[in-house]
Amino acid sequence: MRFDACADWYDVHAAPQRAFAARVGAFIQVAPGEEVLELGAGTGALSRWLCEHGARLRATDASPRMVALGRAAVPQAEWFLLDAFTGRLPQATLQVSSGLLQWADDPAAVLGRWKASLAPGGRMVHAMPCDPCLVEWRALVAESPLIWRDEAGWRAVFAASGLRVIRARLWMEPHQFPSALELVRCLHRSGVTGRPRLGPGRLRAAIRRYDALHQRAGQVVSTWAWLALEAVPV
């Protein structure tokens, strides 16, 4: 993905991700003074919520530019550079992320590594977009940088990692954009699209088709879905 290159524009083009971060923060139920390790913190949308609700937060990201922007936006947290998929995690009693785990090539293996860094009695809360997120666009374009899983699929991944899901919450809501082109631009400029997967002709055709199918009153609708799972080691 292109998060480091797009860090300076991420907040402008990631309104759905920021909206879900607040919901994930409320779902986590952090206690005042609780020590929290956040993975893939980005520019700090979830970090800010956690700090404002009393967490003692260590926030991490693999992107140097994201860490710099996050540190400036949420100075209450301790920020440091860490690739959560390959680096060694510090021990934590509460480990959280939002919008990170879906990028793992083998999320079950990643969760197994993350589980090993939990302190005795610790818990983890990880949230991610899930099927049917962006279903309108995916119906027109089969290529995707992600493997899309529904709630049952993600629960199976957690179970395969030796984790027991004790709470779950799924949010679904529509987000509006001026056009399908603006939707695609927001995805691209927030860094989530990776290298180009469509030729220009196919991309233009998909955009025209999306507008024809989903434009109402000068806006197009895009479905977003976000799943949060709280889990503990079995």
The structural class is alpha/beta
Average predicted local confidence, pLDDT: 92
Q: Which regions contain 5 or more consecutive residues with pLDDT less than 50?
A: none
Count of discrete structural domains: 1
Structure report:
It is a single chain. The chain has helices at residues 3-13, 15-28, 45-52, 64-73, 107-116, 135-140, 151-160, 180-189, 200-214; strands spanning 35-38, 56-61, 78-81, 92-98, 118-129, 163-177, 215-216, 219-233. It is of the alpha/beta class and 234 residues long. The chain has one domain (3-131, 146-174, 225-233): Vaccinia Virus protein VP39 (Rossmann fold), CATH 3.40.50. The mean pLDDT is 92. Strands 1, 2, 3, 4, 5, 6, 7 and 8 form an eight-stranded mixed sheet that branches.
